[in-house]
Write the structure tokens for this entry.
Amino acid sequence: MRRLEWGGWVSVAFSGAAMVVGVLIGVGEMVNPGTYTDVRYTWLHLAPAPGPFPNGFSLVVGTLVDPISALMLIVVTVVGFLVMLYSIGYMHQDRGLPRYYAELSLFLTAMSGLVLADNLLEFFVFWELVGVCSYFLIGFYYEKPSAASAAKEAFIVTRVGDIMFLLGIFLYFYNFALAGPAGSGGWAANGFLFVNGNQPYLLGHGLGGNSTLLTVAGIMILGGAAGKSAQFPLHVWLPDAMEGPTTVSALIHAATMVAAGVYLLAVASLFLGFTSTDQLAIVGIGGFTAFFAATMAVVHPDIKRVIAYSTISQLGYMVMAVGAGFAMVGLFHLFTHAFFKALLFLAAGSVIHAVGTQDLFKMGGLRKTMRLTAIAFAVGGLALAGIPPFAGFWSKDDILSAVYSQLGSHPAYWPFFLLAFAAVFLTAYYIFRAWFLAFSGDHPRDPSLGHAHEGPWTMQVPLVLLSALACGAGLLIFVPGFQSLLLSGAGATGIPPVYGTTDLLISAASVALGVSGIALAWVLWGNGRVYALPETSAAQPVRRLLLKRYYFKIGYDWIGAKGVYTIARAADFFDRFVIDGTVHGFERAFALVSNRLRRIQSGVVSDYAAYVVAGLIALFVILLIVAPYVVSRLGGG
Amino acid sequence: MIPLLSVIVATLAAGTVLTFLAGSRARWVALATTIVFLAEVAALFAAFPGWPGYNSALVPGFADGESYSWISIAWMHVNYTVGVDGISLVLILLTAVLQLATVVYSWEEQKRPAAYFGLVLLTCFGCFGVFIALDVLLFFLFWEAVLIPMFFLIGYWGGPQRRYAALKFFVYTHVASIVMLVGMLALVFYSGAASFDFSAIYASARGLSSVLQSFMFLALFFGFGVKFPIVPFHTWLPDAHVEAPTGGSVLLAGLLLKLGAYGLIRWAVELLPSGLHTMQPVLYVVAFVSIIWGSVLSLSQRDMKRLVAYSSINHMGIVLLAIALDSSLGLLAAVLLMFAHGIVSALLFMASGSVHHTFGTRDIPAVGGITPTTPTLSTLIMVGSLASLGLPALISFPAEFTALLATWNTLAYWVFVPLIILVVTAGFYLWMMQRMLFGPARGIPSTAHDVPWYEGAAMAILVAFTVLFGILPGLLVNVIMNSPIHGFPGT
Amino acid sequence: MDLSSFAGPFLPEILLLAGTLLIFLLDVLGIRRIEVTGAVAAGASALALLFVVADLGFAPLAFLANLSAGQVDVAIAPGATPLYAFTSLGLVFQGIFLTASFLVALASMSRPSNERGAPIFFGLLLLATLGMLLVTIASDLIFLLLSVEIVSISTYLLVAYTRKDVRSLEAAMKFYIIGALSTTLSFFGASLLYGAYGTTNLFAIRAVAGSVGYPVLVLLGYGFLIAGLAFKATLVPFHAWAVDVYDGAPTDVTAFLTGGSKKVGLFAIFLVFLGPVLFVAPGAGGSPFSGGTVNIGPVLQVTLAILAVLTMTVGNVLALLQKEMKRMLAYSSISQAGYMLIGIVIGTSPALTGATLQMFANVFMKTGVFLVVAGVTALGVGPLIDDWKGLGTRRPLLGVAFGLMLLSLAGVPLTLGFVSKFVLFSSAVEAQGYFVWLAVAGLLNSALSVFYYARVLKVMFFDRPEPDALPTGAVAGGSEPSLLAAGGLGYARATAIALIAVAVVAFGVYPQPVLGAISNAAQHFIHVGP
Amino acid sequence: MTALPLVGFVALSSALFAVGLFGILTRRNFILVLIAIEIAMNAAILNFVYFGAFSNGTAGLTGQAVAVVLIGFAATEVAVGLAIVLALNRVKGTINVAQANELKL
């Protein structure tokens, strides 16, 4: 046990160091953009040759620090360090801790690599690596079949997105190999780097007549992002990913990895460029997901899954913002969301740590024994609900305003805007439903959970720090340097800066929705009691639909387990009995024929003489009739 | 100039003979041979890129070329001609690595070890010969020399159905090599090549009419394709793998399948460009079917070895696809994939062998939750599976990425077929891991213990290569592209 | 005629005749020891072999050469009808036959010394070989057929020489009846050809082949001839006798039959059919009944091709099913004849080279395996393949030697059998066109043949013998013979087997000397042969 | 002479040959088989005689010479056959060829 904790502290120390470096780099970039020069290693190089790559072809691995990666770097390293610290207390009773810390550290490495990647391929490499870390960590409690299953599901569903991402990369690499300013040799020759400029690289240089291809490529990128960021219809894996330790949920499945999809969209939007069709698709997916996921959170009894649905929903907001052309706004929400969502998870983890269950209906009254946690959860909830001045308000409000500002030129955004707007209400409702269920009332509804207490200081410190960030991170928007950091990103020009010019009506409406959501939660759940919805209620089918997650999970499982597996069984049957059966059929026929043939050796010499005479007659037939015919047909030998 | 290739041939021949005669010390002889072999391969690499005799008149287009007359009569000139280029060199490296891993893995082989190690060395010797031979007869000689030891490895050291499996392996590959031989002879005689040498045929075969080229290409494709194996001539592979001893499976998957691909590249694609061009649609169809079939069938397998075997069909389908693209990027991808699949499938077959030793069965539903009992084995299975499903930073990824990119370059949206299959591939590996490695412990005998040191060491060697070339694929790429026959850009 | 100038070219034949007479003389004098008579036979064969090799131009033996350059491969003047002609291909075949006879004689010296009939055996062996040598130089159909009959009649008696064994006598009876029937067919065919061509000289026939006005008569004649000679060459469906005879005859005789006398039939087919096969009438051919010209060459090619494929296939398929060692080898021997026939079907010098090399290889392989079988039978091993269980591990050297021969028969690389098949099938591809399919058929058959050879190997090396199934030696019961001892086999037989095993590998690794000589001979034969 | 007689003679020898073949196929007695073989052989000999007689010059002599040789050869062959019959009869006690069928399949 001593040894394991020592190992944990090593990870804490290193992630702490990483946080220091990460924040220094991030702030350094903020203060003085372009400080950090790139380091590159050429991974594969094809010399110039006729064909698709007349000027050659390079795939490189390198680093790129620019404002958005600086921002992400701060998020990753800060949340990473805090979660690592929290883990010391939270995980100390678990087995397999070396594996836990190793995998978590590997995740942080890969995530930093992803953030710093300077081209799509490198991005993809780290993208897959964070995916596999996520796979390992979801399946950390691998003895539990549900955890093992969830890990697999997460990997496969994101893999579906990944292949779209990969195809997107092919499209960019092949079809835009020559894109670039005159004399630069084209994009392929330069290693497909993300290039800073006044506008997205491909929109500026490579588009030509290929806007269809660019659209398709953008859709593919969206597919990849949807897989990673659990957007509709690839959202199913994230709630199940809650099988992992809560720390993992906080770090990977709330703050960082799931945000990589949004980050990818932002990167693509800023460096490569989307067409307006792409944008509509992205806004549509994001807006719909924001609402769709929120509805499922409304009824769920599991505290972590409620937060997970909320994550999906919030990611939907970010996607929508990027789609509408406000990549920086989306990233800002990503930034604040990382803190308050990590906070919510860690607070939930604190509760789970204390009571040993995730079922909200068994909890209750915990605010008395876990005051700090209750406050932290409340702070996170307020931030999530978009109540000023908490962090979530600023960023979410920016998103709504930004999308709203585009409605005039893009009327097709309207329905998605409304869905996202409605989701604000749901968000506030479900998160406070969770709060009331867990913390209000007199005592836990399940009597066995009576001995709840706060965790050790390693758990409390991160809660406090994250609470502070959840309160204050949004206020960074008033720091001029930060604002300019966000505005200095490539492609920022041409997009109306929305900071500070927030549409007040939108703000007021969203705050009102948030408050009314909280109020409804209070009315329904504020006294700590639980009401059973009557079986005959008209709402029952809706509740069941929501609890069944709109049957998506069941449907996907059916496709996987029944559909594909049945095909596989059928193919196996075909393989064994038709393909192999044909071979065996030949074998049997051969044995049959040769056994008959064998009988001609009767042992009686007269028979042999008869064969000779028969052979002679056959020879005459061949020589006089068959062979001349064959020869005349073949025209000689 | 030292005739390095002949020195290696002599080393391997002497080592093989000595191993057969060494009795109980056979493993040491085998190991010593392997280490000398590795050192000599290192010497081959050391001279890169300024290889001796590169592009010489004797064996144009190849390094370390040697040529001696063997049979010379009026109408038939057979030479002992050898040489390497980037493509063969990479596969020679694979041969040496897998030989080392196999010898180490089988360290405690109890059943007639001298014969076992001798046959292992003979197989690798044959593979090495195939990769350096530049004469039709010499090539065929080595080609067949691989077949026989493998037949015995399966037939004597194999599982319960070994006779059937060995026979099936033999029938399929032997019939295929006959068709291949006819194709090669036709190549020589129809083109009027001055000798059986690769370079002589290379000089004359291009003059053949496109129809003739197509027929010959088809014959060669069938001959080499069965070794790939291509659907529907693949059913020997799962049976052979399931019944073969682990060492046999490793060599079978790691090397023998590569012989088919290498043969196709060297003796069909390079010599019959317009044949390839005409037959391209056929190759595409076969490749796509193999990719889909291998992957889908893996999904339904219960036996771990069978699963990996079918996944080999899938991977080799991608190799075929990459070759069929007829582009330099595709060829590069094919060779990378061959190397990657050689290492990774070897790792997975070793892992399934260890599963069998440890738990007495390879039936996936029968064993579960093995990770606490055998953490090392479990980790190795994970690394192998993840590498096989194409995780970046492991060796398959650069290969598959290049292959798919090349496919996109040539076939555009058809790339969806292998791409979607990537999901299925991930699916069956993950499902296997879920059922075997994770979940509550199930069917684990009380005597189960983690892998012995030699098995672990063998797999560790492969893992090292998996990671090394996964992170630095450029090392391989630079060598592969040093193959002037292909006109790779930059050579 | 100056005797010496007559004796010179025929020195090998004279040697064999002298050997025969000496053996019979010794018999009369009461000297019947097998070592003595065997040594005479082996010595005569070996000496004759040396002369033939010298005549073929093997430099180190040049001092033994007795054929001058003007006597071999001489182009025959138009109109000339010599009874015999020396061709280097004929000399190669003389070498082949003498090798067979030498090996069989050598090995047979290890037959039980108390066996009766040794002088008859060795005398007839030399006499049959003499007939074979005469076949190789024949250039007249009647001369050829009579020479073949010398072989036939000698071998009928060879099969029956023990006079006691009921199986041998049954074999001899079958051999005789089918042989006599075939002889009749041959001569009847020859008579029809004589009627059609007005001559029995092969050179004359070659000159006019196909251009006569009686195509039906010619084709009927060739049909009879094919049937008659196919008996000797064991082509399907004229093969049925061979299995029973090879099985029933004393195994050393079988070795000679398959190694030597079968090749006589094949070489006779070469001699008779090369000329007609090479003849292609100008213009398109038609039916022989339509009165127009018939492309006798292609017609014969198609016919012989059918026979070749049928022979190799049926032989192989039936060998697969055999449980008895000798019968299995007999069927395999039949299938080998199919391969060799390919050479004459194609009728090019590469094809002749391939077929000749195949026969050269076959002398070692087929004679070898039967010599081993004879030795092993003498050790008390039963007739079934399964009776050979564990032989390879009990007697490793014998096992390895036998294994090498089987591998060679199966065409495994680095053996003589591989080289010969490779050259033969290469020649089929070299001829291009439809001949490629002959190569495919042959190769597929050779793939099939691997199974029954592999089965023997498996039984010998992998199967555990039942307890006491394998006597350790007829001489010293009980104690295991040491690895190197010839125990039980006899030193002469062991020497012969060792020689064969070495030859199979040596020529397999470096075939150039033999292949070069055969290739030369075949090239000449195409131009100056009958 | 006209062409007709030759055709007739050939027909005769062919008939003779057919009789011989018939005998070989149907007789079970070794001696009778030997006789049948001789009949067939004589058909061939007759052929040589006719063809020789009907052809011109020295070519015609060949046929006659061959006929004589073949008569001698046939005698030899029969002698060998009789030797085998005797030996077989001694060991097996029968000269019925159909009963010697130990070697088969």
User: Anything to note?
Assistant: The CA atoms of residues 185 and 228 of chain C lie 5 Å apart.
